[in-house]
Specification:
TIM Barrel, alpha/beta, elongated, binds 3-hydroxy-3-carboxy-adipic acid, single chain, binds copper (II) ion
Length: 437
């Protein structure tokens, strides 16, 4: 099915940083889908993710080639429809198919109306021996003749070539392949397929490619096996890579790849403002929450753009944060849509937080001295509460042992206040959202 309003890549001026989001391809390979009994993204999920990506400002979305499964093939039309429906609002978004250097993959993608093809073929000793088993000369010859033919027959398509496992491919072997295909493609990728790269090796590899192929844009794809995906992506950007593969929450094969919102968050902190043009950063946290909920989980605690990073539990931290959040919140998370600070009532809370909670959140009439006395009792009980929430233990002590009374509510808006000191909804204060994430 061809797009209703075709658009030429040559009419688009790429920004300083173009995210190529691959949540729908690499992201669909995450084992988290299996861990949480989900297994695949439904068509409705894909449509929602596509819409969110486009509204967020992403211009390039990678998907599986239709040949992967009948279901993948069937979902492409719905994704194109949502893309087309947003053209007047957001401009054109390019849909790219991830294809092996196989004519059947290529034909299926062209027939489905993709805007571009992301070719990949294993170039390292490992992928050559265990994936396609071809020697380098044969591999190069095949890739070149396929690309030549596609370039000639479909000049409007955006073509990219990646040597899979590039970071375990010797320089001379990678160049041998890339020299043959470089003039035929719009971008060259150099994926760190198994997560072995470091910032130093990224700088070396990107520097080498930059020098050898000065006219061609580069694409980065970094796996997180060492926990370095985001830092490697940042280094790649610093060294001149324009296109970066990300997924929401960094989901992907094994521990995944660079997280989209984590990358943009770091670029903002590093003041690389020219890289942030056109991205709706405030949508970051809602986007993370959306994908997490599709995986039936909370936003992981290690995700930089998370509520966890605005949640405070230690007594010293809570006291300081209640005075001024900047004491323990260094980053502009509000600009990424994490708009609240959480102070969790727990065993480590001190009298400050308890005073604040009882007075400001629960509207008890009390003075500081009473709060200190209540805290002493609370600290002896809170470790032994069975399944009860700490807030229940605290208010029981406050009411039953200290006889605290609530303020008469003369302010009607108080009923509508939402606070999350405690995960248990208790009238008149609703606490609808589970903490964490
Ligand atoms: C894989 C493929 C890939 C492809 C990256 C790319 C990788 O799942 O092995 O095409 O640029 O990490 O190499 O995701
Ligand atoms: Cu990958």
């Amino acid at each position: 099915m061809l797009s209703a309003i075709p658009f030429r890549f040559s009419a688009y001026t790429p920004r300083r940083l173009e995210i190529i989001d691959t949540t729908l391809r690499e992201g669909a390979q995450t084992s988290l889908l299996h861990d949480h009994h989900k297994h695949f993204f439904s068509q409705a999920d894909k449509v929602e993710i596509t819409r969110a990506l486009i509204l967020y400002g992403v211009k390039f979305i990678e998907m599986f080639a239709p040949i992967v499964s009948p279901r993948e093939r069937a979902d492409i039309g719905a994704i194109q429809t949502v893309r087309d429906s947003l053209i007047t609002q957001k401009g054109y978004t390019f849909l790219l198919a991830h294809v092996r250097c196989h004519p059947a993959d290529v034909e299926s993608a062209i027939e489905a109306g993709f805007d571009g093809l992301n070719f990949y073929i294993g170039t390292s000793d490992y992928t050559r021996a265990n994936s396609h088993g071809r020697d380098l000369r044969e591999l190069t010859r095949r890739a070149r003749s396929l690309l030549e033919q596609v370039r000639a027959d479909y000049p409007h398509l955006i073509l990219r070539f990646s040597g899979e496992d590039a970071f375990r491919t010797h320089d001379d072997e990678l160049y041998q392949v890339y020299d043959e295909v470089a003039t035929l493609v719009d971008r060259l990728g150099a994926p760190d397929t198994v997560g072995v790269a470091t910032p130093a090796s990224v700088a070396r590899r990107v520097g080498g490619l930059r020098l050898r192929y000065p006219g061609i844009d580069l694409e980065g794809h970094f796996h997180d096996d060492r926990g370095l995906a985001v830092v490697n992506a940042l280094e790649a950007v610093r060294c001149g890579v324009r296109y970066v593969n990300t997924s929401v929450l960094g989901i992907g094969e094994r521990s995944g790849i660079a997280s989209m919102t984590a990358l943009l968050f770091n670029l903002l902190i590093d003041r690389a403002y020219d890289h942030l043009e056109g991205y709706q950063l405030r949508g970051s946290y809602p986007f993370n929450v959306m994908i997490a909920s599709k995986l039936n989980m909370l936003v992981p605690s290690k995700e930089p753009v998370s509520l966890t990073n605005r949640t405070h539990t230690g007594g010293v931290h809570q006291k300081a944060v209640l005075n001024d959040v900047v004491t323990y919140e260094a980053h502009p998370l509000d600009q990424f849509g994490v708009t609240e600070t959480e102070v969790l009532l727990g065993p480590l809370s001190g009298w400050n937080a308890i005073f604040n909670y009882l007075k400001e959140i629960r509207y008890y009439r009390l003075d500081e001295e009473t709060a200190r006395a209540i805290t002493k009792v609370y600290k002896t009980r809170v470790y032994d509460i069975g399944g009860q929430p700490p807030a229940k233990v605290l208010t029981d002590i406050a009411e039953n042992e200290f006889g605290l009374q609530r303020e008469e509510s003369t302010k009607p808006y108080l009923d509508a206040v939402v606070q999350r000191m405690d995960s248990q909804p208790q009238s008149p204060v609703a606490a609808p959202v589970a903490s964490g994430g």
